[in-house]
């Protein structure tokens, strides 16, 4: 088995595998703040016509070269919500009163 790698290395298209060994889809997008080293989760594509599903970082287990292993099985993955884009960021202007 390959050695685990950092979430920084995850690329679009990497295989996503459930805790039951089922292939669940492919990484569509890695979500987080690289500057602060905060991993938020993944958007996982489930097929050509399906919307990606959002997988929170808490559900991500091992990250290996080319594969991401989740701590949830296929039925729990199927119940996850769709990913509609990154959450909005709020910009605070220190000069505004």
Summarize the structure in words.
- The chain has 97 residues and is mainly beta.
- 5% of the residues lie in helices and 36% in strands.
- The protein has 1 helix and 6 strands.
- It has a 6-stranded mixed β-sheet with strand order 4-3-2-1-6-5.
- Strand 5 (60-64) and strand 6 (67-70) form a beta hairpin.
- The longest helix has 5 residues, at 74-78.
- The chain is globular, with a radius of gyration of 15 Å.
- The termini are far apart.
- The relative contact order is 0.24.
Primary descriptors:
six-stranded mixed beta sheet; mainly beta; 36% strand; 97 residues; 5% helix; globular
Question: Percent of residues in helical segments?
Answer: under 10%
The counted number of beta strands is: 6
Oligomeric state as shown: single chain
Major sheet: size, sense and barrel closure?
6 strands, mixed
- Please state roughly what percent of the residues sit in beta strands, choosing from under 5%, 5-15%, 15-25%, 25-35%, 35-45% or over 45%: 35-45%
Which secondary-structure class do the elements indicate? mainly beta
Spans where pLDDT lies below 50 across 5 or more residues? 88-94
Mean pLDDT: 88
How is the largest sheet built, in terms of strand order?
4-3-2-1-6-5
CA gyration radius, whole angstroms: 15 Å
N/C terminus separation: 56 Å
The topology string of helices and strands comes to EEEEEEH
| Number of helices, where a helix is a run of at least 4 consecutive DSSP H or I residues | 1
């Amino acid at each position: 088995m390959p050695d685990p790698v950092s979430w920084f290395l995850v690329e679009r298209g990497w295989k996503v595998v459930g805790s039951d060994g089922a292939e669940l889809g492919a990484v569509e997008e890695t979500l987080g703040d690289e500057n602060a080293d905060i991993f938020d989760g993944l958007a996982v594509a489930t097929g050509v016509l399906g919307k990606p599903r959002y997988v929170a970082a808490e559900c991500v287990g091992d990250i290996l070269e080319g594969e991401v292993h989740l701590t949830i099985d296929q039925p729990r993955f199927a119940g996850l919500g769709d990913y509609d884009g990154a959450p909005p960021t709020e910009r605070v202007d220190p000069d505004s009163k």
